[in-house]
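Appendix B. Chain record.
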Amino acid sequence: MPENRSTTTQSGNKKKHLYATVVIAAVFVAVFALAAAFLPGDDSPTDAAPAADPRVVRADSHRLTSPADSELTLVEFLDFECEACGAYYPAVEKLRERYGDRVTFVARYFPMPGHRNGELAARAAEAAARQDKFDEMYRKLFDTQAEWGEAQEPKEDVFRGFARELGLDLARFDRDLAAPRTADRVRADQRDGLALDVQGTPTFFLGGEKISNPQSYEDFAAALDEALAR
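Structure tokens predicted for this chain:
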């Protein structure tokens, strides 16, 4: 009898171990599949092909500063809905105040997949730019990111409200927001970014060279100081 109880117990333990192994394997497969779904490159930020003649800055790129004697250019490929871009925004603004008379700061669109309003926000900024209010809309979108970011429904009414607050011609804003040329302008920035190996946001180019994202304002300032000293 003791042998039978032992055999029964061992058999039960084997079944428990087998069940646990199957569960762990299933969890592993699920986690791996979920991770694979978000690997860089699986989701292109745009359906457009990379630009054939990529440029870090173009003549129509949006310049946040335009010093008379620019010694350096800092370009950011950004997504207005990107939380990391929002986290860098105060540092970039502080850098603009400190170096704006020596450095040209440039913002370029690169809305990422998974952000329901990233591309729409970029078009809102571009529509504002057509009324010479890009900088104002750029600031407004980042200052309010926590209010509209990560929403699953379109926030066109919110962006239209921003346009009203900025004193834009709303009828013109609406037309420009929906115009194919506005979406094409956003896509043109994305095409340059893809060709320049931009894989996420924010991505910074300093003096035409892609740089690792600084970990603090002080690191950023040090990189600018070093580049300006060359």
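Further analysis of this model is presented in Appendix C.
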